[in-house]
Amino acid sequence: MNKIVWPALLALTLSACGTTGSTPATVESRTGDGATSGPATSGTETTGVAGTGVAGSAMDGSQAAGDPRKDPASPLSKRSVHFDFDSFVVKDEYRPMLEAHAGYLMSKRDARVILQGNADERGSREYNLALGQKRAEAVRKALAVLGVSEAQMEAISFGEEKPRNEADTEEAYAENRRADVVYGDE
Fold first, then answer.
1. Phi, psi for 108 (deg, rounded to 5)
2. Cα-Cα-Cα-Cα dihedral of 12, 13, 15, 19, to 10°?
3. Average pLDDT of the segment spanning 146-173
4. Which of these, 93, 112, 82, lies nearest to 176 by C-alpha position?
5. d(CA 182, CA 115)
6. Contacts 24+ apart (CB under 8 A), 124-128
7. What share of the chain is helix, strand, coil (3-state, %, to 5)?
8. Interatomic CA distance for residues 20 and 22, integer angstroms
9. Cβ contacts of 77 within 8 Å, gap of 6 or more
10. What is the reported pLDDT for 37?
11. pLDDT at 147 > cutoff 70
12. Strand bridging mode 80-82 / 153-159
């Protein structure tokens, strides 16, 4: 009897750990002024890093059509999440960037992103395609935890097919191990 109960209990426990509720993630303000954007009842903060609202409210007219994604000072202009060798774990250093993209996507419900996973040239073509997909999915899951709708995101893999740097050095390999955030309207 125990041989049946324990594995079933373990399977149920693991499946429960993998589910997420529908409660939106709370994103803390890093501006220090305590200001929040959006409805007070949502509990979701959409202010970007350095107090420049992700919707472009604090942008001046010098930006390309007021789009904060084109402002080099905005975290929205950063589009790549880099990974360690043979890994698809999103590092903590990319949290501010992902929070900014999540805030932007939640404020623009019609915006769509394609998350493009990439790998360096080491490994087989099939392995690199699978690793690129896992990297894109890791970024998709991170954005989903921050409140982005699944309908706004698509995760795809290019494997080793779109290198950013074609040199055979460790620096080039590190540059190619990434997931890129590409907006559908760009």
1. -125, 80
2. 130
3. 96
4. 82
5. 6
6. 125/159, 125/160, 128/159, 128/160
7. 40, 10, 50
8. 7
9. 69, 70, 71
10. 41
11. yes
12. unpaired
- The counts of H helices and E strands in the chain are 4, 4
State the amino acid at position 50 in one-letter form: A
Q: At residue 12, does pLDDT exceed 50?
A: yes
Give the residue among 55, 85, 87, 89 at the shortest CA–CA distance from 71.
Answer: 55
Domains and CATH numbers, the chain: 27-58+69-183 (3.30.1330.60)
How confident is the model over 16-34, as pLDDT tens digits? 545 444 444 444 444 444 4
Alpha-carbon distance of 130 to 139, in angstroms, equals: 15
Which one-letter amino acid corresponds to residue 123? G
Kindly tell me the burial class for residue 146, based on how many C-beta atoms sit within 10 Å of its own C-beta (0-12, 13-18, 19 or more): buried
Q: What is the pLDDT of residues 48-70, one digit of tens each?
A: 333 333 443 333 334 456 889 99
* pLDDT band (50, 70, 90) for residue 15: low
Among all chains, which residue has been given the structure tokens 């996973």? 117
Tokens standing for 164?
A: 């950013």
- Gap between the Cα atoms of 165 and 78, Å rounded: 18
